[in-house]
Design brief:
Blueprint lengths: L1 E4 L4 H4 L6 H13 L6 E8 L2 E9 L2 E6 L7 H14 L3 E4 L1 H10 L4 E11 L16 H8 L4 H4 L2 H13 L4 E5 L3 E9 L2 E9 L8 H15 L3 E6 L4 H7 L1 E12 L8
Parallel strand pairs: 4-5, 9-10
Antiparallel strand pairs: 1-2, 2-3, 3-4, 5-11, 6-10, 6-11, 7-8, 8-9
């Protein structure tokens, strides 16, 4: 059974498996709580036992299971029915469940495989002029040229990003007026890097590579582990910067949607 709930707290979220999906759910909860209609939380229950939970935010489902719990085939099938009804842009969950879920949704969703990376710090922070508290409009002006979906969602992006930045759950970095990166969440001493972009006329000059290396070293100084996800064909690129591939996960995306590399 899948049902919506507002009966959640940090102690409950702490019982979920320690992974990216749980940190995403926790970041949503810390940012907005349960009082807004645009963020909803759901339990997955089977034979009277809670197996996991997920959040629905910005047309994306983020699914995680409780420690020691597994999702049976019946729950995967029910989850598929829920996805068909809700029609989210994307669904993220553990790889084994994502691949099983994709079999039910192959007519409407495609499986996108991603490599998970973690940064191996060298302890050498290079001298680089980086704005760690930039104006978000300056960040957006770059990202809008790089990510088609963001170009249509200025108000939503600005509202959500500024809200998270004020609460210490996110951070943007700006190098010059041409390259930027935004931390999607900073949760439990783990930072997920996303939305890395360079304006078209400055690409090919190693700006993004330079900024990512600087961010990795800067956050490592603060005791924060830096992670990111990227398409498998970008493995060598990120390894050259200092990231190490540690696994593969899957994202289910609507077939008519446009996706972007990290």
């Amino acid at each position: 059974m899948i049902y919506q709930t507002k009966d959640i707290d940090l102690a409950l979220i702490a019982k979920l498996k320690d992974n990216n999906y749980t940190r995403r759910i926790k970041s949503h909860f810390l940012a907005y709580g349960t009082q807004y209609d645009f963020l909803r939380f759901f339990f997955m229950e089977y034979k009277g036992e809670r197996l996991g939970m997920f959040s629905e935010f910005n047309s994306a489902l983020m699914i995680s299971t409780f420690e020691g719990k597994e999702l049976p085939d019946e729950m995967i099938e029910e989850l598929a029915g829920f996805v068909r009804m809700l029609k989210p842009f994307s669904v993220e969950l553990e790889r084994k469940y994502g691949e099983a879920l994709a079999q039910y949704l192959e007519d409407d969703y495609r499986v996108q495989r991603r490599t998970e990376f973690t940064y191996n710090a060298t302890g050498k922070l290079p001298p680089l002029e980086v704005d760690e508290t930039p104006k978000l409009d300056d960040v957006y002006s770059i990202l809008a040229k790089c990510f088609p979906r963001l170009a249509e969602d200025y108000e939503m992006w600005l509202t959500d990003t500024s809200h998270r930045v004020r609460r210490g759950l996110s951070q943007s970095f700006l190098m010059g007026d041409y390259t930027t990166a935004t931390i999607q969440y900073i949760i439990d001493k783990v930072a997920l890097v996303g939305q890395v972009g360079t304006v078209p006329e400055e690409r090919g000059k190693m700006h993004a590579r330079t900024l990512l290396y600087w961010i990795g070293e800067r956050l490592a100084q603060q005791g924060i582990a830096v992670k990111l996800f990227a398409r498998p064909h970008r493995v060598s690129y990120y390894e050259e910067i200092g990231f190490k591939a540690i696994g593969i996960d899957v994202v289910l995306e609507m077939k008519n949607a446009t996706h972007n590399d990290t």
